[in-house]
Amino acid sequence: MLNDSSSWIGERIHPGQIEKYLDANGDDFIPDGVIAGQLASEECINAAGDKARVRDIIAKSLSIKTLAPDETATLLNVRDPEMWQEMEEAAGKVKKAVYDNRIVTFAPLYLSTACVNNCRYCGLRTDNQSVTHGVLSLDEVKSEIEVLAGKIGHKRLVVVYGEHPKSGIDYMVETIETIYKTRVPIPHRPGRDTAIRRVNVNAAPMTIEELTALGKAGLGTYQVFQETYHKETYKTLHPHTTLKGNYRWRLYCMHRALEAGIDDVGIGALFGLYDWRFDVMGLLYHSIELEKRFGIGPHTVSFPRLEPAENTPFISQSKYIVDDKDFRKALTVIRLSITHAGMILTARENAALRKSLIPLGITQTDASSNIGLGAYNKAKGREIQESTRQQFILGDTRSLDDVVREYAQMGYITSFCTAGYRCGRTGECIMDSLRTGAEGKFCKLNAVVTFREWLDDFATPETKAAGETVINKEIGELQEKVPKVFDTFMDYYNRTVNGERDLYF
Ligand code: SAM
Ligand code: SF4
Q: How far is the CA of 114 from the centre of ligand 2 (A)?
């Protein structure tokens, strides 16, 4: 058991850093009753007049505007399968307009499975003695990077921390700095080395002061999932005696992050805890609030679905399990509602389902994932899942190479670009270019160069061949679409072919 943590817990929540964001009546921005009313008001969308309204809403999505809550509620109430078909097609078009055919991959890296909370659905909850609770040492972190960056070829990570004094802000800063500093050899390319270039963080809500320190460590995106926006349900899942039991401390953590200067934030809801339609509305309200107050919407939206976990009976008892059909609808409506945001689909879902959901507008997926503590080093690239060492069981454990090949065969280019936050293309300054589609075109140049780099360093011959088909098509298109920078682009591309690394616009 890790040390007693009660005095640390007592000092975590700063009420002043919640109250300052409430409205004049002391309310937060999630109006539960209003949302319930919006979802109930349009029971069924089938008639011709209703369809015209749905098509007007779709047209608004296609102009890359955030929908209003009543518009999203209307989409959620559509019953006609043909209208859902139209909505799915529009969702794919929204993604294409904003992000083109790029897709980004990352790996989750669990640095701490120690947690003081007791979320009923989570294998890492403090009362679950069937699971190992621990933190990685800095040497163990470096060993994980050797596999993730050196052997698999990842450039981006989401590092994950349980909420515990052993993995508080000092540990987070130390581990992030260690990851950025660690250069590792590429074992099968003698003389070449590589590194992780972007570290995103998934961790509990923090104070503004801690978030300022986290920002200085150079994180990419700061992710926190609200789990469910429905207050009564939230209460039943997170004991009020725990830190996570404070709904508003969590709800306002992105406000604090943005105030602390972290301008790249990711929101999410864990589907399966409450009515999925309510939580889609919650994500939209959250996005609208951030944009209204800070001029910056969430960079990403995540929608993990509840998965089985060791010794966690709640999961099979939940009344709100979301089936594949409804999950598809949820993703479609999120894509049409929060049009500028990236959408992250994780390896909780199986490979076949992931393939079928990507055309709805997914922009990021993980690959070769392993969520046990120290598991990459242990697995050495082989598939390994030990239920007693991890939070839940994954559905897709394919290698990065397999995933990249599948994307190439589907016509997508896997971007290993990490330029955005390294040259300030984040936050408010990126919102307009996302809306106009400029970001998609600009990032394509970096996507092609970094994909070339990855194919040369890490791909199997089969994946390399599939990837080169995509690259050749892209180069042909870039010549026409961006003639002014094409020569510079080709210079970067050829230098990469000749062995230079980490070139970006
Ligand atoms: N401890 C931090 C927190 O709760 O914010 C961050 C890490 S937590 C390990 C990351 C996310 O995993 C949670 O926000 C939750 O949405 C998700 N999660 C927890 N239990 C899960 C389960 N059984 N199946 C799928 N996802 C789960
Ligand atoms: Fe801890 Fe996060 Fe799991 Fe809750 S979801 S028990 S806070 S690791």
A: 9
